[in-house]
Amino acid sequence: MTTKQEQASGVAIMGGTFDPIHNGHLRTAVEILDRFNFNELRLIPCFQPVHKGLPSITAKQRLAMVEMAISSDPRLTVDAREIVREGPSYSIDTLKEVRAIIGPDEPLIMVLGMDSFLSIPTWANWQELIHYAHILVVSRPGWEPDLISELNAFCENYRAASSHELQCAPSGFIWLETLPSLEISSSMIRALCKKQESIAYLLPEPVQTYIIDNQLYQDNVTL
Ligand code: ATP
Ligand code: MG
């Protein structure tokens, strides 16, 4: 084992609808693991998104695609707790559950794209999130860190002075990390499928094959 691996600490989680998972999610996840040396990054597909319409396909199908997408990197894991829990997938419930499992001292890091982060003031009990985890915000093409005032004041109280703080405390800090941009979104992929255009190279090949074989995203049926 290398020194880098010996010093790994922290559990990162990345929630999403993953409708479908794509290379924007996956490159973000591996960049974060390489830069921060967390022990693992868990992808947590939601059951029912709270702030957007219902997913276009079943939770089982979204989960299957996440599982096939992560097989090439052992640091990536999938955590199906929101799907098992059913109902609206509130992040605060998930953070409390994961915190209870990993114990009070282990760093827990919630990774959010800038678009998700900017919507935080609309989330259930959003001011409590930081008591259970750090928030690691990653840049996303088209979304500038131009914080609305309520969120700005909140960030002032919690902004980490260095990224190192995310591994020195179990929770309580916000850090913004700029990553190389991949302008890919699930909605873009769904739109391409609907037009019967190629989705190659936007997502892992097995996921692409699964979408094509199961004729997903070809019409507007909501399940
Ligand atoms: P949709 O287009 O349906 O909204 P999405 O591509 O935004 O889907 P989500 O499953 O909603 O994907 O996103 C899950 C998380 O991943 C969010 O925190 C989001 O900000 C982040 N994310 C998604 N795509 C990217 C990307 N290309 N670069 C960085 N972060 C991303
Ligand atoms: Mg989105």
Automatic annotation (TrEMBL):
Q: What class of enzyme is it?
A: transferase
Q: Which Pfam families match?
A: CTP_transf_like (PF01467)
What's its EC?
Answer: 2.7.7.18
Keywords, ordered alphabetically: ATP-binding, NAD, Nucleotide-binding, Nucleotidyltransferase, Pyridine nucleotide biosynthesis, Transferase
The family database entries (CDD domains) matched by this protein are listed as: NMNAT
Q: Which residues form the Cytidyltransferase-like domain?
A: 13-191
Its GO biological process annotations read: NAD+ biosynthetic process
Entry-linked Gene3D superfamilies: HUPs (3.40.50.620)
A GO molecular-function annotation? nicotinate-nucleotide adenylyltransferase activity
Catalytic activity line of the entry: nicotinate beta-D-ribonucleotide + ATP + H(+) = deamido-NAD(+) + diphosphate
Its annotated pathway reads: Cofactor biosynthesis; NAD(+) biosynthesis; deamido-NAD(+) from nicotinate D-ribonucleotide: step 1/1
Task: Tell me its family.
Answer: Belongs to the NadD family.
What does this gene product do? Catalyzes the reversible adenylation of nicotinate mononucleotide (NaMN) to nicotinic acid adenine dinucleotide (NaAD).
Q: Which NCBIfam families match?
A: cyt_tran_rel, nicotinate (nicotinamide) nucleotide adenylyltransferase, PRK00071.1-1, PRK00071.1-3
What is the protein named?
Probable nicotinate-nucleotide adenylyltransferase
The record lists the lineage as: Bacteria, Pseudomonadati, Pseudomonadota, Gammaproteobacteria, Oceanospirillales
